[in-house]
TrEMBL record:
Source species of the chain: Rhizobium redzepovicii
GO cellular component terms listed in the entry, alphabetical order: cytosol
Protein name: Helix-turn-helix transcriptional regulator
HTH araC/xylS-type domain residues: 166-263
Protein keywords: DNA-binding, Transcription, Transcription regulation
Pfam families: HTH_18 (PF12833)
Record PANTHER family: HTH-TYPE TRANSCRIPTIONAL REGULATOR GADX
Length: 284
């Protein structure tokens, strides 16, 4: 283990069979990634970022993003993603000296990536490599990797003050199958249900909305990165009924869970946010 504050990161191999566009995806940790096959388009602040196979990039934490993954026949879309604790980014930047850190966390791609950096990324992504190292060495390897990304133009923006919504997402993400209620959350935050409801409303959201969205984000991750049967994915995120889970997933993302994995149905757009994002112009 790195230590109790920095658990060993575990890479995810994300595969997608059908083209699909997902909006308002929120990561609770910054993610370093490489597109291995297909194309990835990320929208933030109405600015598209397109990455082709072989490109490396950085996804920020707690920023709603629209992401379109496009397979290129005959292969599926595939990306390897490595979550890295935000504190390691800040520690690495502090040791680099003067560095321009964006005022907001936004997605970024590297302008180039030397072979030494690519080898280090592959090493950190191989299961068990970091876990076998002393904690101080594992942290140093990850900070070196973060430094390579920064030198190549992918710098994580400054962290924002955590919103109550972000803290609630973290809590639910720790056990998405748990029968979470407003009362559970209020007790965890040492406040009344009325206060929690009022403070979430001030952030233009609500408990049920965050609960459902966090579960669907987790379900998408399981479908992308595992071969679990859909019924098991449903159970992992708190749904006893696979059909109810599938309906909720399609309501949230505009495509069925099976389309994400196999690409067996016609691609559907999923709402005005995507239609007006400009992503279509990039993919023609």
């Amino acid at each position: 283990m790195l230590d109790e504050v920095f658990p060993v990161p575990t890479r995810a191999l994300i595969r997608q069979g059908g083209r699909a566009c997902f909006y308002r995806l929120v990561n609770t940790s910054p993610i370093l990634f490489q597109v291995q096959s297909g194309t990835k388009i990320i929208m933030a602040d109405d600015r598209p970022l397109r990455l082709e196979a072989g490109a490396y990039g950085l996804l920020p934490d707690y920023q709603p993003l629209t992401m379109e993954n496009i397979p290129k026949a005959p292969r599926n879309y595939q990306t390897v993603a490595l979550p890295v604790p935000r504190q390691l980014f800040e520690d690495a930047y502090a040791r680099m000296g003067p560095i321009a850190v964006p005022s907001r966390p936004l997605p970024a791609s590297t302008s180039s990536f030397p072979e030494e950096a690519a080898v280090l990324f592959d090493y950190c992504c191989q299961p068990g490599n970091l876990a076998r190292l002393p904690g101080a060495i594992a942290r140093a390897r990850l900070m070196e990797l973060v430094t390579w990304f920064a030198l190549c133009g992918a710098v994580l923006g400054e962290g924002q003050s955590p919103r109550l919504e972000d803290r609630l997402r973290q809590m639910i993400e720790s056990d998405p199958a748990f029968d979470w209620t407003l009362a559970h959350a209020a007790r965890s935050f040492n406040m009344s249900e009325a206060t929690l409801r009022r403070r979430l409303a001030a952030e233009n959201t609500g408990f049920s909305e965050i609960l459902s969205d966090t579960r669907m984000n987790r379900a998408l991750g399981l479908i992308h990165a595992t071969t679990l049967p859909m019924a098991q994915v449903a159970l992992e995120v708190g749904y006893d009924s696979p059909s109810q889970f599938s309906a909720r997933f399609k309501e949230r993302f505009g495509v069925s869970p099976r389309h994400v994995r196999s690409g067996s149905e016609h691609f559907e757009r999923i709402g005005a946010e995507v239609e007006h994002s400009g992503a279509d112009a990039l993919t023609r």
